[in-house]
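Lab notebook, bench 4. The sequencing result for the construct came back, and we need a structural model before the next group meeting so we can plan mutations. Quick request posted to the team channel:

Model the 3D structure of this chain.
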Amino acid sequence: MRSGRKSIRPSNQPLSEVTIRVPGPFAGISDLGFTAQYRSQNFQEPLHDVPLLIEGPPPPMRRLAELLQLLRGIEGTAYAWSDPVMLSDEVVVLAFRDRSLAGQTLSDGEPAHKSYVLNLVHPVVFTFLRDCAETAHLRLADVIEMRVSTKSNSIADIVLPLDEIVQSNGDRLLWKVAG
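Done. Here's the predicted structure in token form:
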């Protein structure tokens, strides 16, 4: 007879590299999307920065890069955003930075541990979209698509209504203010 216990990943086994692609998350621009890249790491080490590579047409990308500067001013969270950097007219990169442990370890205390786990399991995509809507006031598409994959295979294609990701939507349309 088999036990009803579930297998739990040993803490010394690394978490796999995962990519989440989000095509067309901003209202009115279907050819602007982003990719979040989680590097492989061990479970109990501080979370690595998660880079977001955002690609799209030049006029809305310039405006987006300006508005993403607002994410740097978010305070009181267990994470931070790097400065957005325009690699070209069509590519911007920024990074999600876990700050949950900030000089602590997982064994130091319950609040840090909860924030660490939340940052680990809550997709950076959701945090980015929420901050774009609430802080940068960007209008997001009504439906958000995500494609989750590893180096070797596709894990999931997910389609969610916006209200399952963020409660309030912004009012800035990139295509109206671009150019």
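The CA atoms of residues 100 and 118 lie 9 Å apart.
Will bring this to the meeting.
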